[in-house]
């Protein structure tokens, strides 16, 4: 499995894109999607909600379990991926592309996020 070099990663297995105009995209990693199994339901924060780094902001339900979704950064949700709400399997099939979850206007610079190499080392040592 290859984690894109242009993303940053949390230890809760979320990824964050580089900020474009102060807005970043959030999703879960392929590692997390594979561990979850077939995702059948996604609950995301609402547009306008404030999320806090490291705090729960939604849920992902699979045929195996329900997992909390954590925000890797603090800020205001500007968009959710309605395609994922309508077809949660996108999380499994395209975790790093069309399976993104929400966009957030950053309140401050992200802290404690890992590079692709650091994340790879983290998941292989766990």
UniProtKB/TrEMBL annotation:
Domain Lipoyl-binding, residue spans: 23-105
SUPFAM superfamilies assigned: Single hybrid motif
Highest taxon above the source species: Bacteria
The protein's required cofactors: (R)-lipoate
CDD domains listed in its UniProt record: GCS_H (cd06848)
N6-lipoyllysine modified-residue sites: 64
Pfam entry (one): GCV_H
One annotated Gene Ontology cellular component of this protein: glycine cleavage complex
Keyword terms of this UniProt record: Lipoyl
GO BP annotations, alphabetical order: glycine decarboxylation via glycine cleavage system; protein lipoylation
Keyword Zinc-finger: no
Cofactor: record remark: Binds 1 lipoyl cofactor covalently.
InterPro entries in alphabetical order: 2-oxoA_DH_lipoyl-BS, Biotin_lipoyl, GCV_H, GCV_H/Fam206, GCV_H_sub, Single_hybrid_motif
Subunit structure: The glycine cleavage system is composed of four proteins: P, T, L and H.
Role according to the record: The glycine cleavage system catalyzes the degradation of glycine. The H protein shuttles the methylamine group of glycine from the P protein to the T protein.
HAMAP family associated with the record: GcvH
Family under the similarity heading: Belongs to the GcvH family.
Protein name: Glycine cleavage system H protein
Species whose genome carries this gene: Wenjunlia tyrosinilytica
Lineage, opening ranks: Bacteria, Bacillati, Actinomycetota, Actinomycetes, Kitasatosporales
């Amino acid at each position: 499995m290859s984690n894109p070099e242009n993303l940053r990663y949390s230890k809760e297995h979320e990824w964050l894109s580089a900020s474009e105009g102060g807005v970043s995209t959030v999703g879960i990693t392929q590692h997390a999607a594979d561990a979850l199994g077939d995702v059948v339901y996604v609950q995301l924060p609402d547009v306008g909600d404030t999320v806090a780094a490291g705090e729960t902001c939604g849920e992902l339900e699979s045929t195996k379990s329900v997992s909390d979704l954590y925000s890797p950064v603090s800020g205001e949700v500007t968009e959710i991926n309605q395609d994922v709400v309508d077809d949660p399997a996108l999380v499994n099939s395209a975790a790093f592309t069309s399976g993104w979850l929400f966009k957030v206007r950053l309140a401050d610079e992200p802290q404690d996020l890992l590079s692709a190499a650091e994340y790879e080392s983290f998941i292989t040592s766990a």
